[in-house]
Amino acid sequence: MENGAKAVDVMLLERNKNLIVKIIGDIDQHNAEEIREKVDKTFERSRCRHMIFDFSGVAFMDSSGIGLLIGRYKNVRNRGGTVAIANMNRDLGRIYNISGLKKIIGSFDTLDQAEKQVENRARA
Amino acid sequence: MTYDNEVSISMSARSQNEAFARVAAAAFVAPFDPLLNDLTDIKTAVSEAVTNAIIHGYENKEGIVFITFRSYVNEIFITVTDEGVGIEDLEQAMTPLYTSKPELERSGMGFTVMEAFMDHVEVTSAPGRGTTVEMRKAIARQGLKSDFECLFTGLGGTGER
Fold first, then answer.
1. Candidate from A29, A68, A95 with C-beta closest to B15
2. pTM of the model
3. CB neighbours of A46 closer than 8 A, spacing ≥ 6?
4. Cβ pairs bridging A and B (under 8 Å)
5. Any idea what the CATH number is for the domain that residue B89 is in?
6. Per-residue pLDDT in tens (0 to 9) along chain B, 161 residues
7. Catalytic-residue membership of B106
């Protein structure tokens, strides 16, 4: 266990068949490990099919965030679900775009929009 | 080359110091009154280089990461050095999506991000002797941008701010 102040908060909420993951803090390699552990543990135990990341509390993300999202995407796909992002800060747009992530994980202005999109996809 | 300013940091190769490195980068660049985009780009590139030094250079073991920030006029020069294992095949390491540590969920985008966000990136490495990443970026100043806009719109172009 590393010493030092807590650098990231992860809030998890199950709603309908969605696991909503609200991250408050930067997403770098250090924090990504903690986020991954918490999310995977809850997702495994839950009956959720989809995962929505609420990025309203994320001001910074490097390529560790890309790895984190792709990893969760694989887990969710194994359950036949989809992943979406809501409330992404404009500053994160460049890394999201160059990573090619938008081809597999949609980004929406609000949590509400993301939830609707995920439901629609599930029905389709 | 003589620089206008220079700051050096040496830090333990611990992942919790990634945040410190980013904040230091932001603090060094702040007096240039950078556009937010440029600031984010530089913080991201530093985060990538420092993360590489910690998890690849030192393989999450003990070591020291050396960072130097330098400036000349409006150009920022950043060097991130580790004395770790070095890179065997530099070309392969810099290929987008390639990662030597897929088990850590690395996306393989580290060097790609550095190259996309900075004007120039140069990597020198020797197996067993460590790696140095040199990056530079010319930053646009918010103040300069508004002067520039005044000049070319010809409206209220008094030069006053």
1. A29
2. 0.89
3. A14, A19
4. 73
5. 3.30.565.10
6. 899 999 999 999 999 999 999 999 999 999 999 999 999 999 999 999 999 999 999 999 999 999 999 999 999 999 999 999 999 999 999 998 889 888 888 888 999 999 999 999 999 999 999 999 999 999 987 765 555 555 655 554 444 44
7. yes
The answer to the question of residue B80 being in a domain is yes
Q: Using beta carbons and an 8 Å cutoff, which residues of B are at the interface with A?
A: 14-16, 18-19, 22, 36-37, 40-41, 43-44, 47-48, 51, 54-55, 104-107, 109-110, 112-113, 116-117
Domain that holds residue B122: 5-153
ipTM of the complex: 0.89
Chain B residues whose beta carbon lies within 8 Å of the beta carbon of residue A2? 14-16
Has residue B158 been placed in a domain?
no
CB proximity list for A103: less than 8 A, separation 6 or greater? none
Q: Which fold has domain A8-109?
A: Transcription Regulator spoIIAA (3.30.750)
Measure CA B152 to chain center.
Answer: 33
Task: Name the active-site residue from B14, B106, B136, B141.
Answer: B106
- Number of separate domains in chain B: 1
Distance CA B161, CA B151 (A): 12
Identify all chain A residues contacting B58, using CB atoms and an 8 Å cutoff: none
Hey, how many other C-beta atoms are within 10 angstroms of the C-beta on B39?
Answer: 18
User: Coil, helix or strand for B58?
Assistant: coil
What's the token pair of residue A55?
A: 């990025």
Residue for token pair 């990893």: A71
Q: Is B149 a catalytic residue?
A: no
